[in-house]
Specification:
Helix content: 25-40%
Order of helices and strands: HEHEEEHEHHEHHHE
Structural class: alpha/beta
Oligomer: single chain
Number of strands: 7
Distance between the termini: 36 Å
Strand order of the largest sheet: 3-2-1-4-5-7-6
CATH topology of one domain: Rossmann fold
Number of helices: 8
């Protein structure tokens, strides 16, 4: 294929990290890229000789692609059960009115053991949490949405890591990898808060949860939330398998 300069419509390095997570897989052939936007990630996959399908509410692709389909992520997806080996959703889930339904659809159209990779703005980063403390708004959603001009581009469903994990783990998936696209230099200054906010979170988790099984899960969630990639990272990227 000839080289095209297609805008990625995602933060720097997101496509690179997602592609790395995908290339780790040995038996993935058919992939759904949704929402595909202008098609930067679809184009990347086609150059890797994958069988890639692309979906979005309109055809915004900047090149001809025979496997593009109109797909509304808030509704049933137009694919058969178990059709794909992997679904990639780059910076899409935060735009949805029905993210739970979308994840269930991902489960339906994936084969058993298939992978879903989801990226979304990381509101668990201390940089984003500090902005919320000061303004009531997270990074990537810094001011009120325009209610006079609603658009699918609005971030109407920002996801914390615990919430994204809940949606995946209650709908037949198991998270196996957590990554970020990059850590901006300014984010390192928030390391001074680290011991205090981690201790406070641990105390709250311990006080509020009495069930031993959930306490064990919360211990893992706490470790994840205060990992380098989530505490400092700009974008949250997770890979999960259909179980």
């Amino acid at each position: 294929m000839r080289e095209l300069n297609i805008p990625e419509n995602a933060s720097k390095n997101v496509h690179h990290v997602v592609a790395g997570l995908l290339l780790e897989e040995k038996d993935i052939l058919k992939i759904l890229d949704i929402p595909c936007g202008a098609g930067a990630f679809t184009y990347r996959l086609k150059n890797k000789q994958y069988k890639v399908y692309s979906g979005d509410i309109e055809n915004f692709l900047q090149f001809d692609h025979e496997n593009f389909v109109i797909a509304d992520m808030n509704k049933s997806l137009p694919f058969d059960n178990g059709f794909f080996d992997a679904v990639v959703c780059i910076d899409g889930i935060e735009h949805l009115e029905n993210p739970f339904g979308f994840i269930r659809e991902c489960k339906r159209i994936l084969r058993k053991g298939g992978a879903v990779i989801v990226s979304t703005p990381n509101i668990n980063s201390m940089r984003s949490r500090w902005r919320f403390f000061l303004t009531g708004h997270h990074n990537k959603n810094k001011s009120p949405l325009n209610e006079n001009d609603p658009t699918p581009l609005h971030h109407i469903n920002m996801f914390s890591y615990p919430r994204l994990r809940y949606v995946l783990h209650t709908n037949g998936f198991k998270i196996t990898a957590i990554k970020t696209n990059r850590i901006k230099f300014v984010s390192w200054f928030h390391i001074v808060f680290y011991p205090f906010v981690r201790l406070k979170t641990w105390l709250v988790y311990r006080k509020e949860e009495k069930d031993p099984k959930q306490r064990a899960i919360n211990k893992k969630i706490l470790s994840d939330v205060y990992s380098r990639d989530i505490y400092f990272g700009e974008t949250l990227i997770v890979k999960a398998y259909k179980i």
